[in-house]
Specification:
By secondary structure, this protein is an alpha+beta fold. The chain has three helices and two strands; from the N terminus they run αααββ.
Length: about 70
C-alpha cells in the first residue's frame, strides 16, 4: 500500500476526485462490476492522505471531493 500511496501523492499534484485516481493506484482502467469496489478503495486512499495531513480536499461544484497533495 505504501507504493500505491506514493504514486497517488504524485498524481494529486493537481486536484483529483477519487474516481480519477484508478490508474496510479491500480495501473489499469476500471470498468463494470469492479468500479464500485475500486471507487471505495480509491476514496479510502485519498482520505488516508487527508487524515495524515498529506493532502487537502475541496468540494467541487458537482459534489465530488477533489484531493490535492500538500
Amino acid at each position: 500500500h505504501h507504493s500505491a500511496l506514493d504514486r497517488l501523492v504524485a498524481h494529486l499534484a493537481t486536484p483529483q476526485a477519487a474516481g480519477d485516481c484508478f490508474m496510479p493506484l491500480f495501473g489499469r482502467e476500471i470498468r463494470g462490476s469492479q468500479y464500485g469496489l475500486a471507487l471505495v478503495e480509491a476514496m479510502a486512499h485519498c482520505l488516508h492522505l487527508w487524515h495524515a495531513g498529506r493532502a487537502t480536499r475541496a468540494l467541487r461544484a458537482d459534489g465530488a471531493w477533489a484531493f490535492r497533495a500538500i
